[in-house]
């Protein structure tokens, strides 16, 4: 295990403490501790818990002081730029916690290094056309999409098989990822089934090459999306990125800032882009459909319905942009009813799902995060839909990369 002396890198230590204090402030304010992942020295957490509650105005001042002193620290230029973007994001979140109202487009720029605006509906119509091409039958696409989901949904009586099937998919996706880029030999991931939690699946990185994937056993699970979910949360998605960056950046280069993963920062645009491309990289073309037909469906009595899974999932990814447009509509003053109608029309979801989506878009401090999905996919497309996709993936999984510097930083040898 690599150990670090905080006194040897005081700026980075102050950055880590700022992120931990900001997270405590958020947790105290809205009782949400899911914005930050930390796998550094536990004594830092003990210190933050024992301190008096932080004031948001002091956190703003601390962020500004760190930004001012950063150019004098002697870090390499690329790392200096990267750290500057992280500090700008933390200051922006601290301002929101202090009560500043920041327009959504400005949040996306300051926190995520993105310039966002409304996407043309033509993109969504193209997704509908892909569904029409890929789904069995004719007629209303929304009804056929719902029928497709029901066809592949694991029956309640078969729910006990879910963890086993996820473990099988995780093993296969890990092996395929390891052929693209070597994972640490001691890396290990376990599956934990939960009930009545507000997510379908989520990656939980514990540090020191140990991870968990948490699965909601209460929600219906579409087994056609099994590899989509497992590759996204696991390999070559979130967990692959976290363990590889710990190995390559934290352990080898002593970049201790990697021990903090604050949700509303630019690296998450890259992370969500990798995760949404993950299934296509590990199972290109129709390989996912063929693997599921051989290794999953027979165990639970599902017969393939003739749909084209790769096209269905491509359409699904295109429709992330609908939620980004909906977020902008809410920020621009559109009514909830109008936004729900928009979501139903273009995201092809029912009233209840559209209402849940609107509520999700209004979660405090998370409003801008929705843009990480669409923009992450689009930014990485030129690199990951090319002959050099595996080389690009290896660089994305092992380097500090900002959305606005993607081309520059991926092109370096």
Keyword list:
413 residues, mainly alpha, 3-stranded mixed β-sheet, two-stranded antiparallel sheet, 20 helices, 7% strand, globular
Please describe the topology of this protein:
Blueprint: H1 10-30, E1 36-38, H2 42-50, H3 56-69, H4 77-97, H5 104-112, H6 122-134, H7 141-152, H8 162-180, E2 188-194, E3 201-207, E4 210-216, H9 226-233, H10 238-253, E5 260-262, H11 267-282, H12 287-295, H13 297-300, H14 309-318, H15 320-331, H16 336-347, H17 351-361, H18 371-384, H19 389-398, H20 406-411
Parallel strand pairs: 2-4
Antiparallel strand pairs: 1-5, 3-4
Helix pairs in contact: 1-2, 1-3, 1-4, 3-4, 4-5, 6-14, 8-9, 9-11, 11-18, 15-16, 15-18, 16-17
Describe the structure in your own words.
With 413 residues, the chain is mainly alpha-helical. Helix content is 60%, strand content 7%. The protein contains 20 helices and 5 strands. The strands form 2 sheets. Strands 2-4-3 form a 3-stranded mixed β-sheet, covered by helices on one side. The chain has a two-stranded antiparallel ribbon with strand order 1-5. A hairpin with a 2-residue loop joins strand 3 (201-207) and strand 4 (210-216). Helix 1 (10-30) packs parallel to helix 4 (77-97), helix 3 runs antiparallel to helix 4 (77-97) and helix 9 (226-233) packs across helix 11. It is globular and about 65 Å long. The model has no long low-confidence stretch (mean pLDDT 95).
